[in-house]
């Protein structure tokens, strides 16, 4: 392929003896099953969720890229509902954990119970032992409880009393937090934020979307009709689709583009802390999954640019001066993208 990223131009003016143009793009891999599954999940979620297409696409990308997601938004924008509905489209074990200030690590990971009959300790798994784990209001638990997630989110297992207990695949953590309310909350440490593939800002619906929500509620479709959503993918299906995504083609110059984009956050004057190599890996894995969702077997710069804000916004820290000026992390990411030469 002479140019992976350029569109085929018009050939009507070519002389008769010119070489014939390349055939229209045909993927080297068959993504019909992947796209059909993604469309089915979108339809199922669309039975209840109005709008939020970008949110749904990013969640599908995270599933295919085997990454965790942090959802941030004010109360009432369907963060928890979307996560619960998404879990219902997957035929895998699901659990929900409501974080509170008095929660202990054992409430998440599990605990060992002494059995007098056998004179031995028996490990009783906690709610983290599921394929899709919804952690509601993750910033309400103290640091001790949040630190319990470090090992399991990165290494996909926990260690209890010297014994390692692996998590079953797939394993996906969907966490929510409210950016406005600060009373009774604890700021997530950078090490934990870095373990989330994406941080998705869930905004308000448009006026038209809110009207549709009101019409549906007025017509009797209010509440949270989880039973309206059907299962689409099994655990085996997810593993197979992830394996297909890992085989996506990535040009060497695109790897350099990702490295330069992330590297520029470490030298930017507006940033106190830049992104680590884990952000580069997140961009690469996310772009592979997104390109597959878009029906291509290769990654383009546009895939990387689309995902950059979701990958980087929680991994960079603004300087106090820029923060006081009202600069947002997304503004800096956009500036870096605009200044960087795009490979073609």
UniProtKB/TrEMBL annotation:
Entry superkingdom: Bacteria
InterPro entries, sorted: AAA+_ATPase (IPR003593), ATPase_AAA-3 (IPR011703), CbbQ/NirQ/NorQ/GpvN (IPR050764), ChlI/MoxR_AAA_lid (IPR041628), P-loop_NTPase (IPR027417)
Pfam families named in the record: AAA_3 (PF07726), AAA_lid_2 (PF17863)
Domain AAA+ ATPase: 65-206
Segments forming a coiled coil: none
Region (Disordered): 1-27
Entry protein name: Magnesium chelatase subunit I
Organism per entry: Hymenobacter cavernae
